[in-house]
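batch_manifest entry 22 of 60
target: AAEL014431-PA
source organism: Aedes aegypti
requested by: lab member K.T.
priority: normal
notes from requester: please return tokens only, no post-processing; we will run our own comparison against the previous entry in this batch. if the run fails, retry once and flag.
--- input ---
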Amino acid sequence: MLSITFALVLFLSASSAVIVSPLDHAIETCGRDLQVCESKLASYRALSFPDDRETQCFIKCVLIELQAWSNPRRLLKHSTIQQYFIPDAADYSFEDRTRRCLDQTLPNCIPGDSCSRAYWTFLCYKDNYGNLIRQPNQFIPPTELDIAQHQLDCADILRIPREELLNAETLTNGSNCYARCILLRSEVYSDESGLDLDRLYVLLGYDTEKQAFIQYAQQFLATDSANCQTDRCLAAQVPYQLFHELLVKLFKRDGTRDISYVFDVNNV
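--- output ---
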């Protein structure tokens, strides 16, 4: 009887747990870290962000928490932030309006002031791109350090010598089930459904237009002759090659850090 009661308590506790959206979690986390007063935090929870220095740096913190801000380039990651907005179905100019807002606003930001730049960039999206939404399933992509750690963990789990991570063939082709391990830990892949292209875009699309990104990925994957394989490790090979190619392109464009930062085991 006691065990049944205990199980019921656990069930009710799990059922009553509130799953918050990444945006709400980021607001609470930044409110704590930046010691925002309760009255102002209530304003932020209501998605009201006044133009003052404290709020500007708060927005930058939120974007960092969402992995939507690139510190090296001091730019908002479009592919990450776009999932938090839903444009009106009849609105065909939301992208152009957002782009014009960015073109008109960002040149007026003080050079080197990343708080101001983050704030005004976010407002351009909030005011022009669509309705700001909060959903628990919005994807916070892994960071570059997360990916580096995934590499080391997968190598250790699969008993691959870490020196092999510097081998171009290992990285490109993902031998010995390494490919599947990296994709699963990056949360962009499943054995049942393959690559989640929406999540892959959030992680690696950056400022590429989503439709073009998805089309390229689909064309790349269409060459996969192993997509019907029952061997799960073999089935992950071509998806991993796409993942690796896009990751290399992203780091080459990021300005201050090249791909060797992630692929060099000495950096972790």
